[in-house]
Amino acid sequence: MKKNKVLVLFSGGLDSRLVIKILEEQGIGVIALHFILPFGIGCCADISCVFKFSQVEGVPLKFIDCRKGRLFKKYLEVIKKPKFGYGSGMNPCIDCRIFMLKKAKAMIKKLEADFIATGEVLGERPMSQTGKALKLIEKETGLFGKILRPLSAKLLPETKAEKKKIVDREKLLAISGRRRLPQIELAKKYSLKNYPQPAGGCLLTDKEFAKRLKTMLEKFKDLDENDAEILKLGRHFWVDKNLIVVGRNHQENLKIKNLAKKGDLLIELKDTPGPTSLIRMCPFVKAFEYRYSDAKISKKIIGKAKDLTKKYSKKSKGPKKINFIINKK
Which segment of 4-13, 223-232, 289-298 scores lowest on mean pLDDT? Predict the structure, then answer.
């Protein structure tokens, strides 16, 4: 007899781990689907956390990487123009959920899954996990009645998987709200340890990061994958439409160097420890040959970058002369 299968949207957090255990307990074959988003989702610190859980539990794991290529551009459009608006920052929570569920829906047939399940908890998130929002998401994805939310199932309408007796509704739960005590108790029951603690959500929920992204989108009309990574690093300063990024520590300095692309300038102190600073010009300026010695705007931005590089070096205080290394990529 063919074993029923479920495709679980797996963030790596405790809620989605519990969903996997609950459905496995009912004899359902689980396939975990993890989305790698450009600005993270606030659960596992890195992909290895997700991968380790899947290996330990013996759960097949699929990735959808939205950090590059066509999927990056599509996801960026979701951020730029969300149909259902933003949360506290630039987080288009409902539109993001719709984006992921549509991708999951497209994989159901190929993976021979019978339905989709998520770790959503009714009322846990104020924007995307209200009863109204859950219905809206199902309508927009064409998955009405086809998304099982095991942690809150008894508080929600019966899904098709339950009606068909693929899933025993009586063994599902009625958790709601933001308190996590029921999930913590369940983690003990299933011997789940070292799971990620709840974070504040993706970077887009952070108001300061949201301002940083909004500014870059205004100045860099064709923001690319590299720009998205630079957004996460260092201190940011703008001179006209030109960006200066100053590293905050050794690890950031290395990442900034690795992300430097054609047309960028890297500035460092020659004989003194300090930050690596990157100058990235707006696309309009980069359309011309870059000669900072005879371009007024270039002298201005390089002078500013030098000042910032010196300012954030703990070893460059005092009247002594500071020499710089300037490398063009």
Answer: 289-298
